[in-house]
Amino acid sequence: MIDHNIKNSLDLFPISPCSEVPTSYSLLPTPYSLLPTPYYLLPTPYYLLPTPYSLFPIPCSLCYSFNYPLIIVVSMIKKITLDSIWFRNLLIIVIVLGVVFRFYNLDRKVYWYDETMTSLRISGHTRTELVETIFDGQIISVENLLKYYQFPNHKKDINDTINSLAGNPEHSPLYYLMARLWLQTFGNSVVTIRLLSVIISLLALPCAYWLCLELFGSKLIGWVAVAIIAISPFHVLYAQEAREYSLWTVTILLSSAVLLWAMNYSRIKQFIKKPYRWIIYSFTVALALYTHPFSAFVLIGQGLYVLITEGGRWTKRVTSYLLASLGGVLLFSPWLIIVITNFSKFIANTDSVNHSRSGFLPLFWTLNLSRIFFDVNQGIHPLSPLHYLSLFLAVYALYYLCRKAPQHAWVFIITLIGVTGIALIGPDVLLGGRRSSITRYAIPCYLGIQLAIAYFLTTQAKNSGKLTKDKGKKGLPTMGMMNGNLANTEDRQDGQVRGDHDMVPMEKTRKNPKTWKSIAIALAFSGILSCIVSSQLPVWWHKSYAKSRNNPPVAAWINQIPQPLLISNEIPGRVLSLCHLLRPDVQLMLLDKSNSSTNIPEIPEGFKNVLLYRPSEELRQGIETTHNYRVKPTDQSWLWKLSR
Predict the structure, then answer these.
(1) Per residue in 203-228, pLDDT tens?
(2) Which of 4, 540, 566, 616 shows the smallest number of beta carbons within 10 Å?
(3) By the 8 A CB rule, do 255 and 285 touch?
């Protein structure tokens, strides 16, 4: 029998006939315009919600598979006892929109340099092989270039993918192997590989919820954290990238939740009876390391947390943790051996992070921090109020957490943020570099900040409602839960939260509820607005805007002309990025930049339009002097045309 709350939630996501489903989701301009039914027929305020099935031209029988998980979420949130009904509705809207934005316009975003390198490794090729084989002046079509060097094919198997990754040991292999198997199963396309990242990113939401249950013992804090992560423009951007960062987010949250889950049952007697909890933690340690090398910082933070909460004593809980961590490292040892063997390549491939970037480094920190809440491609202007508002919110939320939350909760979040933050900032300050200015490296820090803000908003939401000195009022915390302490001692076990009740600290007096309401609305609105804006544009800051911004108009111009030949000695990743936007029949002549100035190829006959894409000055001059061509710029940046 269908749960009554689920049944009542069906009106939020009506299923319409297939004839009403748009034929192309890429034509949809804004999320709220996706509704296939008149908006005024939906219950307020849910008329603002796009329906998930309207994003894709799928059979009607599959519509329920998109809607049902969201209906479950809505029904679970409805069960939360909370006086602020509008706050509950806000959570529903934000979570649903966050999910929808992840699926929106996957095929309209530029497949940029780093994503093409992902695909190159998945195909089983290395950059050196690509240059030696293709960048030799021979003619090749866009179709064949992408077929053999951007997607899995019969010429290379999974062992070739592993060998390719061994040449880039700074990239842990788990995501790439998953992506290869995914493409072999569901077909080769940009949408398919990005869809894997989207689905993985959705797993971060239940992991965040579980972590909050283990950390705070509160369902409501869990749902607020889910909403914050769901609508964060930063997480939405990387959910649509063919890269490992959405998987890294999941492994960070999962390993953290499993650690707390295991520690609640780590007395030696229980460990003997139920060792599987620590065994599962060992696997999450290995998964994290196989996803990203910076997971080591997260694991160090978890180790510090265990030591601090145990008072620096060698307890049975510490022993269990060390054995489980050692097991995870042993599972990771095959790739660790590859990293050690190819350590010189590891250092060479990551040398760019040692180069300092122009600008005041702390400004990049505040800019990146603001992007997890509000992102309209804002610049790094030192007077931007967004930087300082985001910094103030993060600092105050952490301060509030340390003052009000149980010790084990704030210690966990501070160690999660602190170890990774010090590992990134320390070398930059002492030795110079740009590690701490790269947004994606600080994902553990941002997750910790978002958890702190979730705790702050939830406690304020509870405090602004009716305080319950009515001890018998069902579903509301009593004054015995003051200052983060659990009223029922059975819900604690050696200082650890074990229950899943909505337990948050309650204040005796109401303190300006308008303030926290303004913050909650501002966070929701800024996230939604940011996702709407970024979803409409093919290039955003995380795709190296300066190096990708002209590819869409250049490709559109080339695709309109007959029989084009495109010549370029640009680096492979940038050429591949453009090729994903070109017609399959466009012909290419690619040259190695290191010797193209001395090895000018013959221009074959039979092409009506011969073009140069981002050529070096030496190549342009060589073609003019050697073959008596005139090289004229077109009305598109980065593109020149040859004429006699």
Answers:
(1) 999 999 999 999 999 899 999 999 99
(2) 4
(3) yes
